[in-house]
Amino acid sequence: MAACLVLATTRLDVNGVVRRRMEVRKASFADADQTKATTGMEIGGVTIFGLPDDLPVWVDPGVLVPEWIVIGAGSRSAKIKLDPRQLAGLDRFEVVEGLSTPSSA
What would the pLDDT profile of 19-28 be if each residue is shown by its tens digit? Predict the structure, then answer.
């Protein structure tokens, strides 16, 4: 498993970049039970902070461009607004080129 952070205006490239980085034939999103068991958080509130130490966090480079971003805060009712440059250099946060593609919607 891996946690991925992409802009809401893009789509995570699960069947391309994510699958190849995980070195698996097929990749998919974790269901609600798997997410809760792995992160301790519910879908709709998962944040990239406070995750298990062995769970990599992959960040699309586009996330680092805006002046600020809003991400989950660990519960469905809370969000965090932050300057994405604050993510640079944090342990386990890896910028991954091509992690997302423009959304067609």
Answer: 999 999 999 9
